[in-house]
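just leaving the lab so this will be short. what follows is a protein written twice so to speak, once as letters and once as structure tokens for the fold. can you read through it and tell me how you think this chain folds. anything you notice is useful, everything is just below:
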Amino acid sequence: MDLITVHRDNAVMVLTLNRPDKRNALTQQMYSALSQALTEAEQDDAIRVILLQGDAHCFTAGNDLNDFLQSGPLTAETPVIQFIQLLPKLTKPLVAAVSGAAVGIGTTVLLHCDLVYASDTAKFQLPFVNLGLVPEAGSSALLPALCGYPKAAELLMFGEPFDVQTAEQIGLINAVVAAEQVLPYALKKAQQLATRPPKALMATKALLKQAQPHDLAAVMEAELARFSDHLVSDETRAVIAAKLAKR
């Protein structure tokens, strides 16, 4: 079974997280597949929009902690790092359909999406501190730019789940859709977007991205360095081991 399924719907490339028995928890293998598909979409003129989704019950529970701990030190060649560094470089619109859990990377990836549609069952969480880790994917800069420092500090420091109403209030998502409709709705919006003149669409995205923090690349490098340090620390490994033991 492919853990990432890729199919084309006219000018839309649809990437589906397909590990339902593990709540779509992401492994390094899955990150490699995602990066490969995103790169192909960027290089293919026939693809105008990319849609990222889970299933109607779960977007992703975040990283597979066992796989993460076994993958060794984080470097520029580690698949998760390659995926994260690719996100801000995408020139084509990235749309997400979110239902159920969107934990860790399941939330931070949305900060790089152009449009996000979430079901009324969606639950978001940034649990890094609770795992003895630090924010990733540029979220320490992108989140306060989105919703202000106090709210970003609350979400990142407490690491507690927040609902779809909060996500809509802070501007993380575009619309709330019934769970059974969120995937077809997001595909419909992606298809509509794909009918727009492609060069103008990409140029508009590039202009909009100018509003992001200009030091985003440096922020992401700093996050990676600190994340790597914390990942190998005794504190973090004890926290994660205790969490895994409860499962």
